[in-house]
Amino acid sequence: MSATKNPHRLEISHFAVAVTAFALASVLAVLQALVRADVAVPMKSESLYYISVTAHGVLMALVFTTFFIMGLGYCFARATVGLEWTRVAWVSFWIALAGTLMTTASILSGKSTVLYTFYPPLQAHWTFYVGATLLVVGSWGFCAVMIRSYLAWRRSHRAEPVPLAMHGMLATVAIWLLATAGLAVEMLTMLIPWSLGMIERVDPAIARTWFWWFGHPLTYFWLVPAYVVWYTVLPKHAGGRLFSDKLTRVVFMMFILFSTPVGFHHQFSDPGISSSWKLLHTLTTYAILFPSFVTAFTVTASLEVAGRMKGKKGLFDWIGALPWRDPLFSSVVLAMLTFGIGGFGGAINAAYAMNTMVHNTAWIQGHFHLTVGTAVALTFMGVTYWLLPRVLGRELRFAPLAAVQPYLWFFGMMLFSIPSHIVGLMGMPRRIYTAELFGSPVARTWQPFSTASAVGGVILFVSAMLYIVVVAATALWGRRVNGQTIEFSEPLEGAPEYGLWDRFAIWATLAVVLIVLAYAVPISHLYMMERFPSLPQMPF
Ligand code: HAS
Ligand code: CU
């Protein structure tokens, strides 16, 4: 099979961009961890540190994830309902790639050091915002292709539930469309005209509100595709069955419903939003914990089923019967264990009063490296090992490296994140360059924790490089194999029936209603209050 004739070229191109972004961002990450531990890395400077943090955040959180999810979505659509509109998918890919290159160049030029949350009044060069917008426009093309493929399938399958993997990917699409509406308002009415000099000032409070309308569901845009793998691939791969198809559909629909109307849990300390609205967003945030609790139960139960199907009868001996050396299995289970801790931290963040303890401290970077940096990213690495033979038609090279890589990631991340949580509680701010804070005595007590985190960072870097080596070697020199197909888990209770949990339009409409309830009044308050918009600020 020559590369040009591979039927999976579309998916492979997306994965290639994702893995390249991941590799670049991993190099930046280890340098940052060393700077924080006060190690004399070459060309160490404040400005380079912040350029690096911006590039790392954008490449990991926005580029690696988005391209990986689009590639995975196309794979799952092709394997379940068939892929329509592939030409639109290709055009969208090139738009997203052009946007990514534009934003990356803008950051590396030093003119757009605004971190991955790009809060005004920090201002980036217009190419940063336009590039990011193009990435999103490309992702909308992906959404259109997924919806079109679903509708084409639905015409000839009127009373059937959509295959579960596609169900989860469609939930991802719905979450993304609702989320990016907020980002579009921020970009088009505020940041782009402001960076082009068409308006002089923007209001940081309003910009942050539109940003977090987008920013929280963004985290579920990352998480839900990982859950799709946990539910629809892992049980089968481990030799078992999915505990409940119906519960899984409930979970995906709950994510559509509750992902967006929670953004104020990132803005508890922001002025201009009354505490009752913040409390409402706390309550909706607690509602969104529910589908993750169900996931913890259902996926673990499915693994127990796998162990039992291998003949284990004791209370815990089924755990030992699971395929711990298999890189997809170990990646996902370690991702789950990590998410148990990250989710617990999330519940603390979401508690209106407790948030003041952790907000803007190193705790937050600890939290999101457990969630997006492991629950999601480690799942995606495991998926890569599973998918490469299936989409490239090549056997995994250096399989023993792939077997140890997830464990290294897990240990590295524990060493990185647990000290970040502790030192955050001790008061260390997040996003600071100088490890010693101009000789402050309290900052000295933080240093051992930053050093431990840096050791974790080095282990993570080694793990990331093992991943890159396996992927590159497989793509270039993997032995050709045929006949590896994408297969999904069978549910324990038999074939599912078409019902309420397949009615996307109902759940998406309810989601819009909830968003309006949660945001219409506080956003209109923000626009009606006397405003004090800000001139642009550049850090250097
Ligand atoms: Fe978060 C900040 C609240 C989940 C990402 N979050 C962030 C930021 C990021 C992020 C990037 O309420 C920083 C943004 C910035 O730069 O300012 N987060 C939550 C809550 C959840 C949550 C309530 N976060 C995520 C996920 C993310 C993510 C998922 C990315 C993918 N987060 C917050 C809040 C803030 C925040 C505040 C703002 C803080 C501030 O002040 O700035 C929940 O969705 C978590 C639910 C999870 C669970 C755990 C379920 C456990 C499972 C596995 C169990 C495993 C078992 C082991 C049983 C309830 C599913 C099985 C073992 C075997 C052997 C089988
Ligand atoms: Cu959030």
Topology of this structure?
Layout: H1 9-36, H2 46-80, H3 86-108, H4 126-155, H5 164-195, H6 204-232, H7 234-237, H8 245-258, H9 275-309, H10 317-320, H11 327-350, H12 355-358, H13 362-392, H14 399-425, H15 441-477, H16 504-528
The protein binds heme-as and copper (II) ion.
Sheet with the most strands, sense and barrel status: none
Strand content: under 5%
Tally of discrete structural domains: 1
The CATH H-level superfamily is Cytochrome c oxidase-like, subunit I domain
Number of helices: 16
Structural Rg: 23 Å
What share of the residues lie within helices? over 70%
User: What form results from the Cα inertia axes?
Assistant: globular
Bound molecules: heme-as, copper (II) ion
Based on secondary structure, the structural category is: mainly alpha
- CATH class membership: Mainly Alpha
Explain what this protein looks like in three dimensions.
The protein is mainly α and 540 residues long. It has 16 helices and no strands. Helix 9 packs antiparallel against helix 11 (327-350) and helix 11 runs parallel beside helix 14. The mean pLDDT is 95. The chain has a single domain (7-528), classed as Cytochrome c oxidase-like, subunit I domain (Cytochrome C Oxidase, Chain A, Up-down Bundle).
Labels describing this entry:
Cytochrome C Oxidase, Chain A; 540 residues; 16 helices; 0% strand; mainly alpha; binds copper (II) ion; 71% helix; binds heme-as
Kindly summarize this structure in a few lines:
The protein is mostly helical and 540 residues long. The protein has helices spanning 9-36, 46-80, 86-108, 126-155, 164-195, 204-232, 234-237, 245-258, 275-309, 317-320, 327-350, 355-358, 362-392, 399-425, 441-477, 504-528.
